[in-house]
Amino acid sequence: MTDLDQRYATRSVPRYTSYPTAPHFHAGVTGSTYGDWLAGLPADTPLSLYLHVPYCRVICNYCGCHTKAARRVEPLLDYTDALLAEIDLVAARLPGRMQTVHVHWGGGTPSLLPRPQFLSIVERLHRHFDFSQAHEHAIELDPRTVTPELAETLREAGITRASLGVQDFDPVVQKAIGRVQPYEQVALAVERLRAVGIDALNFDLMYGLPFQTLETITETIRLTQALAPGRIALFGYAHVPWMKKHQRLVDESRLPDAGERIAMADHAREKLLDAGYRAIGLDHFAKPDDDMALALDAGRLRRNFQGYTTDTADTLIGFGASSIGKLPQGYVQNMPDTGGWSRAIADGLLPVARGIALDADDRARAEIIEQIMTEHAADIGEIAAAHALPLAHFSASIADLAEMIADGLVIVEGSRIEVTPRGAPYARIAAAAFDIYLQRGLARHSVAV
Description:
This protein is of the alpha/beta class. 37% of the residues lie in helices and 20% in strands. A nine-stranded mixed β-sheet has the order 9-10-8-7-6-5-4-1-13, with helices on both faces. Strands 14-15-16 form a three-stranded antiparallel β-sheet, covered by helices on one side. The protein has a three-stranded antiparallel β-sheet with strand order 17-19-18. α3 (74-93) packs parallel to α4 and α3 packs across α11. The chain is globular.
């Protein structure tokens, strides 16, 4: 590990899928606040919708998602009823049947919902929202659940993109993380999805897992290349057992150290580039003709709770326990426990647990951070002026980049900052210089690499 890696790679910083980040949300934003924000949206505002289904058959040891095991169908049926009611509650507060440009299902394993329930949710969304301009309808899938019947259900629902959780193809690694799915099983899932016309596919891969080596990563990428997904997300495993108790099942003695993690990240990146993928931001890769690569070239790449995205909607409506929404006025997050969430809905209340209202400083810093994370550059003066703030407002944040500038990781020319190719792995740290909340809070975050 180089001196630079030693000083930067082990720093704890947010992933910046939002700003302010979720640890800084508070209970002062309520369901009543959310209702007012929804009613205040201009009727022509394009929307993005997110539906969270917090259930899996079993919980993988590495999982950092908000989910729990459901071995019976009854919790899924009850959850569907509450989700339908929440959609009705939200729609009743909107100024009309608004245009939806992007839909994303996450979890958990949303495809665990029985076919009639899944399709009933889709029908309810179509009833309340205008899908005529929808660019993408995406879902996260466990490859082990993709039957021919599920593939047909997804086709009927209008799903256009599927993201498959692969992580690693090595059987020893799979056993260690509690997710055994041989290559043949993933290949069959891909075949079944493509057979019904769902050929926009993403693979999620991970580094930093127990028993991983450069050789297992090389083989995983070789097998991934054989299945030719259009996009790949390469995530570093975030070991946060203080937040996710089941991660205590991971043998910490088998986790790679900081130097090995860096070597794995660099190696995986090199192999993906050799395989013909383009690097997108911090941790995504796409084929050169994929919409995500085209969005990067056109300056249209965005970052939200799903990571890097081509979704251009500035307003996100979240449905389901723990889901987060973003509106021009601020962020809202639903109650994380399904019991409290469903009881609030049954009482006719929007099930919001917390959130945060945005001011001009928040909006400007969010724009700076997003541009650093997507384009590795931002004109601070231009963004400050757009939010009626003086450039001097960000002087302290720019000064906080001094170490990175001295190390050749960041360049400052006038009011424009740029992360250099050498600094690209540490873009999160450059972004953190503009995070005013990070200096106030005690939240723990994952390491930078």
